[in-house]
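Hi support team,

I submitted a single chain yesterday and got back a structure, but I'm not sure I'm reading the C-alpha cell output correctly. Could someone confirm the output below corresponds to the sequence I sent? I've pasted both exactly as they appear in my results page.

Thanks,
R.
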Amino acid sequence: MSALPIWETLGTSVMGLGKKLNQDWGVAEGTGTADDPLVLAVADGHGSVSYPRSDLGARFAADLFAARAREFGALVRPGRLPRLRDYARYELPERLVRDWQTRVWEHWGRQPGPEGADAPREDVLRLYGSTLIGAVLAPGLLVAWQLGDGELTVVDEDGRVRLPLAPERAELGDETASLCMRKAWHLVRVHWEPLPEPDRAPRLVALSTDGLSKSFASDEGFTEFAAGLYERLADRGVPGIAEDVPRWLTEASRHSGDDTTLALAHRADRACGASGPDPRAAWSTAPEPAAPWGPGAGVDPVSKALDPSSGLPDPASSPPDPPLSPPDPTSRLSDPTSGLPDPASGLSDPSAGTRHDDEETERP
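Hi R., thanks for writing in. Yes, this is the structure output for that exact sequence:
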C-alpha cells in the first residue's frame, strides 16, 4: 500500500502598486491527513469606493471557509464519498455564502457606518464584497470551490498544469461574481476529484487571486509560470523558495496593478537539490507594469464586482500612493486566525477597511 503524501504549505500576499490597503486575505494550513486535512483559501475584496469594507469581507470569507473546510475534511472516509459529493456541490456553497452574509450583518450591527444600523441588508453586504476560492485535500479526495475570479491551479505527477475551475466563458472586463450577491451560492463552481491512488495525487495545488494571472499577457504565460513554480518546488521544496515568492508576486503586482495573493500546497515526497527554471521567465511576454490607481494617474480602475442593484462599476476616487517599500522575504502564511501577511508593506490591518475615519472598526 502506498504511503500517504506529505504536504507543505506556503502563503504570501503583496499589495498592489499605489494602493493604501491590501484587500486580499488567505489561509494555508494542514498536512492532508485524516486528522489534519489540508485547507487552502484566498479571497479578494473588491476594493473600490463602493466596497469600503471589502478587506474585512475578504478576511471573513477566507476564515469562515477554513472553518467549514476543516469540518468537511474530517468527514472524508471510504464509503461516504457519494453523500459528501452532494453536500459539496449543493449544501456547502449555500452554507458558505450564508455564513459570510451573517458575519457581515453582525459586524455591521456592532460597527455601523453613516448609513446607520438599519441600512438595507443588500446595501450593507455590498460594502464588504469579496470573491472566494477554497480547497480541501484529505486522503483520497480533492475538492475545491470558487466564486468570482482568481485561479485554482493543479499540477499532476507528470507535470501537466490544469485549471479545473476555469469558467467556460471569460468574465466581462473586471466584472466578477461576489459573496455580496443575492443567492450567490448558485454561482459557486465546484471541483470534485477522488484520489484513489496516493501515488497519482497532484504534486501542487495552488490558489491565487487574479492579481497574479492578470500580470501575464496570455493564459499561456500564467500556465508557464505555474509550471516553473512547480519545478522550483520539486527541486527545492517550500523552504527553498520561501524568500523568492514575495519577490515574484511583487513583480506580478507591478504588471497587474492589483493585490496579489498565493496560497499553495506542495507534495513533499521528492528529494530537493539543484534549482529548476525561474518562473519569472514567463513575464517576458507580460503587459507593461500598471500605473498607480486613482485620478491623475492615467488609469481609472473599475469595480471588480457586479453591482447587485444596477450592475454598473464604480471608479475609485482616492489619489495614488507612493511606491511600495521592498518586500519582506520572510513573510509567510501560517495561522489562519492571524491572516495573510503582506511582504511588501507589513501585515494588513483589517481595521483600516472602512473609509469612515470617525469610527473605530472592530477587529473581528
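A quick pointer for reading it: The chain has six helices and ten strands. Let us know if anything else looks off.

Best,
Support desk
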